[in-house]
Amino acid sequence: MKSFFITSSLLVSLVLLPFAAGAVASAAAAPELLPSDCQKCHSSQIAEIEAAGGQHRDAIGCTDCHQEHPPRGANAIPECSLCHESGGNPHFSSPDCLNCHRPHSPLNIDFARASQVRPACMTCHPNQGQELLNYPSNHSVLDSKECHQQHGQFLTCLECHEPHQDSQSYANCLECHRPHMPLKVAYDNNVPVSFCASCHPGPAVLLSENRTKHHQFNCVYCHKFQHKVIPKCRTCHGQPHFDELHETYPQCIHCHIGPHNLVN
Predict the structure, then answer these.
(1) What angle is formed at CA 161 by the lines to CA 156 and CA 163, rounded to 5 degrees?
(2) CA 104, CA 49: separation in Å to the nearest integer?
(3) Under a CB-based contact definition with an 8 Å cutoff, are residues 216 and 169 in contact?
(4) What is the DSSP letter of 110?
(5) Which sign does the torsion angle of CA 203, 209, 211, 215 carry?
(6) Which residues contact 222 (CB under 8 A, 6 or more apart)?
């Protein structure tokens, strides 16, 4: 009886062996997955990468990143560092890539999920970051996404700030202010007196009522290029009087009152 069961088991094994071998061979010879296969279940991701994938579309295929698929493997979602090694670009050392980048449209950068983006921004825009550090202002304490709500986009000054006068445009703001160092006010020789008068009405009124040659000049003619630059009278006038008079009255305003209400 015992020999009967042994013989039966051997027969069953021999019968099933070809099927098992065929299954193993079939698994080993499974065809390579193609993007067209991925399309069957992941059509939205395929559409996204076709529309805005950049190098993720042109340089690699689905299986270069998604090297396995459950249940045959768990390595389905790779780390960005698989390709973007930090040694090649400091930006690749930034944590939480997915806060700004979507893998299937990596250049459509969206800051909505990120709590802070300035450290990552500074890896590509170091000059702007240095300006914020070197010239402290209220802008220096803001995160980059407060002004740049999307990558490559920026708010104009007038979306946060009131103009010095109603007629001013964003282009007028940039004539004196740089966004990353707004308190370092610098300008050319074309800024009209009315712009300066918005913050300095007293001197502007005195100058408008004055009838000397100073009346003919814009503020920036004397206060050249940099806010708060105050020239010496001798810069333009030299030493117009004899030495004894200048020694007795070393300050021109002792006699001429002031540059905006000049008395000759």
Answers:
(1) 95
(2) 5
(3) no
(4) B
(5) positive
(6) 231, 236, 259
Same-domain status, 205 and 252? yes
Do 260 and 219 meet the contact criterion of CB atoms below 8 Å apart?
no
Q: Choose from 15-19, 26-30, 40-44, 178-182 the range with maximum mean pLDDT.
A: 178-182
CB burial of residue 120 (10 Å; 0-12, 13-18, 19+)? buried
Letter for the amino acid at 98?
A: L
- What pLDDT, in 10s, does the model give residues 105-162? 999 998 988 889 999 999 999 999 999 999 999 999 999 999 998 899 999 999 999 9
d(CA 2, CA 248): 136
43-61 confidence digits (pLDDT tens): 999 999 999 999 999 999 9
**Global confidence as pTM:** 0.71
Residue 127 inside a domain? The answer is: yes
Residue closest to 75 by CA, chosen among 65, 85, 84, 83: 65
On whether residue 148 sits in a domain, the answer given is yes
Q: Which domain holds residue 130?
A: 80-156
Contact between 156 and 170 under an 8 Å Cβ cutoff? The reply is yes
Q: To which residue do tokens 């079939």 refer?
A: 26
Q: Please indicate, yes or no, if residue 86 is contained in any of the structural domains.
A: yes
Per the listing, tokens 């921004």 go with 121
* Angle (CA) 74 79 83, round 5°: 120
Q: Are residues 197 and 138 in the same domain?
A: no
